[in-house]
């Protein structure tokens, strides 16, 4: 199994998760992060760190789409291990629904 980052992260990108990962397996897109499924050791430490509960074990039902997104984009986005300031408007996006359809960006973020 692995943990995956899901919809809630989009446009929030709080980055608390990257500071605790023992194997540095977070990768940064323009407006969300993903986890590399082959690098994640399933420790679960990051899950409670996310303020918007965007990190889930892939054993939860219905996460196939997110497993593929994490797997695909962790291969091309840059690694991130150091937390920066979240987007200035992050709070406004905390409760938005269907963020993938409206706001997902395949562009890479800046990384460390
Ligand atoms: Fe990193 Fe552990 Fe979270 Fe996997 S479960 S991304 S290894 S902190
Ligand atoms: Fe995203 Fe939560 Fe990490 S919002 S960047 S998964 S702390």
Give the mean pLDDT: 98
Distance N to C terminus? 27 Å
State the major sheet: 2 strands, antiparallel
Instruction: Give the class-level CATH name.
Output: Alpha Beta
Q: What compounds are bound to the protein?
A: iron/sulfur cluster, FE3-S4 cluster
Strand segment count: 4
- The value of Rg in angstroms is 12 Å
SS strand fraction: 5-15%
In the CATH hierarchy, the architecture is: 2-Layer Sandwich
* Tally of helical segments: 3
Q: Biggest sheet, strands in spatial order?
A: 1-4
Can you offer a commentary on this structure?
The chain is of the alpha+beta class and about 110 residues long. It has one domain: Alpha-Beta Plaits (2-Layer Sandwich), CATH 3.30.70. Helices cover about 20% and strands about 10% of the residues. The chain has helices at about 15-20, 65-75, 100-105; strands at about 5, 25-30, 35, 55. The chain has a two-stranded antiparallel sheet with strand order 1-4. The protein has a two-stranded antiparallel sheet with strand order 2-3. β2 and β3 form a beta hairpin. The termini are far apart. The relative contact order is 0.30. The model has no long low-confidence stretch (mean pLDDT about 100).
């Amino acid at each position: 199994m692995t943990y995956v980052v899901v919809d809630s992260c989009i446009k929030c990108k709080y980055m608390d998760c990257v500071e605790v990962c023992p194997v540095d397996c977070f990768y940064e897109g323009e407006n969300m992060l993903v986890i590399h499924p082959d690098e994640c050791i399933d420790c679960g430490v990051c899950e409670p760190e996310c303020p918007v509960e965007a990190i889930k074990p892939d054993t939860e039902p219905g996460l196939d789409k997110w497993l593929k997104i994490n797997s695909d984009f962790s291969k091309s986005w840059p690694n991130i291990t150091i937390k920066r300031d979240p987007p200035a408007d992050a709070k406004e996006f905390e409760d938005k629904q269907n963020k993938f359809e409206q706001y997902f960006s395949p562009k890479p973020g800046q990384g460390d």
